[in-house]
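Colleagues,

For the teaching module next term, I've prepared a clean inverse folding example: a structure given as tokens, and then the sequence designed for it. I'd like students to try predicting residues themselves before seeing the answer, so please don't circulate the second half yet.
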């Protein structure tokens, strides 16, 4: 670690997802469309929740934060990846690389904790309805969100501080579309095997802990609803199943990348694309289109916008 000041590498080369120009052009179009959907969809959700007073409840407060975080998560790596599809030389400055290391782990960790908080909110609402307004008051809700940002920040800062101090003096090709801790550490001019395991273990522990907490919350919710009514159980099962699918699609790739890393590069890249691009698209669909209050809010917004446009 003392060799940090000996670093002579000023930039890294990202090898990207593929080398064929035709495939890169196709991916450029596809990911441009997906990124526009992510940004517009999540901004739309935030606008609906902020402007509709019927949605000023803890669940939607957390959903607005999740939409904002999902947009950030995708924005850390996707714009650079899209631009690189049109470039032959996919370089990234050392500072930009370290920024990707920090923000990718910061936002991913924040996203994980937010999903746990949302599951806890539903657990309290269903399993302890009489105490819901007391437990999930405004002060506690803000405290939970601030805590999630703090945990994500500490996680990202730890990953970045360790990585930035490593001595980089030779190899600079990263076999991916973005800078990740495990990939950058391999380029250090030192024996980084143990450090790589340690950093991956930290990410893996965080992902597995959040994943277990989420599954535990949903299990308690389903058990509670099953005891109350069969109709409610069917509805809760449908909702929880959709949520669990999103959770698995987000946490699954993270767990495989950091807990059981594969030596197949294209598989690791595919898993990284899944949690950075596909999950931010699925979250709005699952948490809004399957929600009656959100659908009503969208209808009112469309009617209001249509009437205003007609009057003009």
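(Answer key — instructors only)
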């Amino acid at each position: 670690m003392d060799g940090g000041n000996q670093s002579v590498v000023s930039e890294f080369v990202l090898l990207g997802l593929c080398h064929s120009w035709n495939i890169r052009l196709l991916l450029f179009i596809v990911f441009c469309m997906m990124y526009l959907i992510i940004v517009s969809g999540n901004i739309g959700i935030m606008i609906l929740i902020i402007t509709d007073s019927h949605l000023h409840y803890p669940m939607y407060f957390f959903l607005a934060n999740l939409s904002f975080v999902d947009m950030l998560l995708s924005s850390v790596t996707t714009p650079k990846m899209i631009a690189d599809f049109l470039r032959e030389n996919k370089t990234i400055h050392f500072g930009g690389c370290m920024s990707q290391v920090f923000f990718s782990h910061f936002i991913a960790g924040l996203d994980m904790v937010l999903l746990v908080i949302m599951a806890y909110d539903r657990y309290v609402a269903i399993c302890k309805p009489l105490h819901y307004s007391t437990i999930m008051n405004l002060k506690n809700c803000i405290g939970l969100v601030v805590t999630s940002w703090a945990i994500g920040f500490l996680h990202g800062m730890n990953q970045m501080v360790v990585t930035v101090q490593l001595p980089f003096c030779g190899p600079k090709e990263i076999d991916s579309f973005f800078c990740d801790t495990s990939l950058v550490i391999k380029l250090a001019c030192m024996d980084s095997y143990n450090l790589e395991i340690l950093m991956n273990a930290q990410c893996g522990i965080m992902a597995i802990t959040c994943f277990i907490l989420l599954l535990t919350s949903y299990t308690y919710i389903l058990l509670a609803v099953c005891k109350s009514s069969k109709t409610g159980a069917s509805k809760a099962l449908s909702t929880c199943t959709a949520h669990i699918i999103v959770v698995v699609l987000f946490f699954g790739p993270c767990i495989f990348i950091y807990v059981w890393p594969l030596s197949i590069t294209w598989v690791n890249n595919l898993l990284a694309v899944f949690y950075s691009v596909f999950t931010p698209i699925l979250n709005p669909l699952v948490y809004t289109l399957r929600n009656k209050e959100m659908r009503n809010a969208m209808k009112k917004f469309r009617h209001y916008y249509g009437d205003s446009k007609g009057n003009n």
